[in-house]
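Lab notes, practical 5.
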Amino acid sequence: MNLLQAHFVLIFPAVITLGYSTIELSPTRPLNIGEEDPDFNGPIKNVTVALGREAILICPTTDLGTYRVGWMKADDQTILTLHNKLVTHNPRIGITHDNNNWGLHIRQVKEADKGCYMCQINTSIMKKQIGCIDVHIPPDIEDEGTSSDVTVQEGENATLTCRAKGHPPPRINWRREDNEHIVVRKTPKETTKVESYSGESLHLVKLDRRQM
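Output from the prediction step:
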């Protein structure tokens, strides 16, 4: 038995006890004569959701017959569902199926839910495919490492820093509160005016009154 088959046996044992009920499931088995070969009826579409929303991965199958479908977390092999039964104790996870489409639902998505999930069919040679969830985390400015008010003498240099977190990584733009242009020194003798400046740190060299 190879490694993949060993994993599949763990996912589809003959009997599993959950709470007060016992679930009987078919173990991996060969195809019977005249029986259609179960398969996937298309790929699992990756989804991107905002933090706190619901993520749904759909695993389409065909000719499933008496074969079983299971979901698991791909990276750590955590078993989530066995056919239409929940195995995980995570109350945010649910399972639906309609016309051979098996849906894995994750409600109130957290950052830890980001990653890939595996849908499996318990044929003798395991059939599997993977769909992934990406979680968007809104940007937030980090107090640590972000500049407060800075006081310098005319002719001195100053650096203003803004650090932010989020996913995807946020883009940081600097603007003046009075909507005036930012005066940036290109060379020791040449300056230029810009409406905004992109980057985590804004370096102001040899400040003069026009840059205050």
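Observations recorded by the TA: Residues 105 and 187 are 57 Å apart (CA to CA). The longest strand covers residues 127-142.
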